[in-house]
């Protein structure tokens, strides 16, 4: 994250916090309330997610949790990890919750019921799981989730009080035919069409170019920065300048302990969503601390 942008977001958050402490006249109260909501997600902190995908055994999860608990995480970083559903209770019981929040990798588009194999947003809230990853390219490609369906899922998850990591990104074909930004904008629009500007306070965008996921082919820092800057600009024009300045944009796709520091220097990279390397405790801890290391 660029130092200047980070400082600006923090200053705005600090101003809001001071306003909350000082209180306001009743005429000003509604505006203050709206800004207080924004404090929830617009912390200005670097944010790293670990998406464990469909990996692990009881034994490997135990080892990973042990390694994560042993890691020192910079206080200026928000971290969430997304284990497979069956391991979540175990991880909740054993992982240090002061350092790591828990995320689900998916949830259903509406209230639960006769939807075999699905997990509802209400269940996540009931199980004390604050985050959910939605729109991952693997679900879009392998489970047929359209952008409109993802939009409805984001809307429903937010309405139940979850925080959402919204994944977007282009395939190799789309990049090579110059459609990267159009694809990202269309995926964002499908969500923006069904949620409000205030809802974005509880969303983190994860830009994950499909060609970089699990391939070892990481986007260069400049490639990632260009797309992140475009996403932020789109947010300014289509949501609001305030949301654009606060929203955190993670990069995902073959991030590892060796390439994270350079990516983290980029102005519009506010964190990472990590797959493979999040299964290796010390590598993930290094990635979590990359914003500090790259200063
Ligand atoms: O899909 C990802 C995170 O959601 C990225 O996966 P990799 O880090 O394994 O490329």
Protein described:
- One of its GO terms (cellular component) is cytosol.
- By secondary structure, this protein is of the alpha/beta class.
- It has a single domain, classed as Aldolase class I (TIM Barrel), CATH 3.20.20.70.
- The chain is 46% helix and 13% strand.
- Helix 1 crosses helix 2 and helix 3 crosses helix 13 (281-288).
- The protein is globular.
- The chain starts with a helix and ends with a helix.
- The structure holds 1,3-dihydroxyacetonephosphate (13P).
- 1,3-dihydroxyacetonephosphate (13P) binds at residues 51, 136, 208, 213-214, 252-255, 273-277.
Tell me the number of strands.
8
Sheet/helix structural class: alpha/beta
CATH superfamily: Aldolase class I
SSE pattern: HHEHEHEHEHHEHHEHHEHEHH
Compute the number of helices: 14
Count of the domains:
1
The best one-word shape is: globular
**How does CATH name the architecture?**
Alpha-Beta Barrel
* Strand content range: 5-15%
* Poorly predicted ranges: 13-41
For the largest sheet, list the strands in their spatial order: 1-2-3-4-5-6-7-8
Helix content: 40-55%
Keywords: Isomerase
Pfam family, one: TIM
Pathway: Carbohydrate biosynthesis
InterPro entries: Aldolase_TIM (IPR013785), TIM_sf (IPR035990), TrioseP_Isoase_bac/euk (IPR022896), Triosephosphate_isomerase (IPR000652), Triosephosphate_isomerase_AS (IPR020861)
């Amino acid at each position: 994250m660029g130092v200047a942008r980070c400082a600006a977001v923090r200053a705005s958050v600090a101003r809001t916090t001071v306003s909350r402490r000082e209180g306001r006249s009743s005429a000003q109260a509604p505006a203050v309330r709206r800004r207080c909501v924004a404090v929830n997600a617009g912390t200005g902190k670097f944010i790293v997610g670990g998406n464990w995908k469909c990996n692990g055994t009881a034994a490997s999860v135990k080892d990973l949790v042990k390694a994560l608990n042993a890691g020192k995480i910079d206080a200026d970083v928000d971290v969430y990890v997304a284990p497979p559903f069956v391991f979540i209770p175990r991880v909740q019981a054993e992982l240090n919750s002061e350092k790591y929040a828990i995320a689900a990798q998916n949830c259903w588009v509406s209230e639960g019921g006769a939807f075999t194999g699905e997990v509802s947003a209400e269940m996540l809230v009931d199980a004390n799981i604050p985050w959910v990853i939605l729109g991952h390219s693997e679900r879009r490609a392998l489970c047929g989730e359209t952008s409109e369906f993802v939009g409805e899922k984001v809307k429903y998850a937010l309405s139940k009080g979850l925080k959402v990591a919204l994944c977007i990104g282009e395939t190799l074909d789309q990049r090579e035919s110059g459609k990267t930004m159009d694809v990202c904008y269309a995926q964002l629009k499908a969500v923006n069409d069904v949620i409000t500007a205030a809802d974005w306070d509880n969303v983190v965008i994860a830009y994950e170019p499909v060609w970089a996921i699990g391939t070892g082919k990481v986007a260069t820092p400049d490639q990632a920065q260009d797309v992140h800057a475009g996403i932020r600009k789109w947010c300014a024009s289509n949501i609001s300048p305030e949301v654009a300045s606060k929203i955190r944009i993670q990069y995902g796709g073959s991030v590892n302990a060796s390439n994270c520091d350079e990516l983290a220097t980029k102005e519009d990279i506010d964190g990472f969503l990590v797959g493979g390397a999040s299964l290796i405790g010390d590598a993930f801890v290094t990635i979590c601390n990359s914003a500090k290391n790259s200063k």
